[in-house]
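Slide 14.
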Amino acid sequence: QVQLVESGGGLVQAGGSLSLSCAASGIIFNIFNMGWYRQAPGKQRELVAQMSTRGIENYAASVSGRFAISRDNAKKMVYLHMQSLEPEDTAVYYCNGFYNRGSNYWGQGTQVTVSS
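Slide 15: predicted structure.
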């Protein structure tokens, strides 16, 4: 059974930092591209950051320079380090693991709230 379990969300003041973690199980982790998405109330889910199996990173323009994604293949973990947080970063953050269309998995989400 595939599971992606996020942790680390919470409430933080604007300008602060927060780190999210995602623990994967039930997949061959090192063949999956891993990413973080977010969904704010009334908005569509959007890509925040991705890291390929080769370690190539991709970021949304709105978070580039403030967020950093990393992965630990041995521990089957992916992380999102967020700094200089803004109220606009408030959303539910989802961990994603993608191999192909039939192997595309999501976590349950973790809430990040940035107060002004």
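Speaker note: DSSP finds no helices and eleven strands in the chain.
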